[in-house]
Structure prediction request, 167 residues.
Amino acid sequence: MKKEFKNQHRILESFGYEFLVVCPNCNGRSKVISLGEHSPYRTDTVRRFICLHCGLNKESVPKKNCFNQAVISYGKVWENGFINIGGPFDWFFGYPLYLQISCCGHVLWAYNLEHLGYIKKYVEAELREDHPYYLSVESRFPLWMKSSKNRDVVLKAIEKLERRIQN
Prediction:
């Protein structure tokens, strides 16, 4: 029986409650979390960086524009002062994600274990539902990740990331 993936219409922002990142101080596994609502659009929520190895802590409150809204960028490069969504870094501090690996000539990345599990379920499915919501994670996966010819390579990369977390 073939594995199926039913679209859950999750948007990338729904995984932004926690980011596993690399500490700029000791290169250990660290976290970036929201102290309150995890929506990137909230301007009154403190974001905290916590290193699980050296104990480094930092806090950030998003900058606001003249309409009292968070300044958000959807780019591949992290820009200081903006909340940057959609690259291999956390939204608030710009630290590189702990869960990233080279795969098929690209970078496979995930914000946290739930995000990685969601990607894994999608990739391993041989049958996928058509017509995902246009803002959903599954509609935004790159073609190299969606391709059945790359399925085994992508799944091996995901397994390496899972082992990295367990160690």
Remarks:
- The helical segments are 113-124, 137-140, 143-146, 151-166.
- The mean pLDDT is 89.
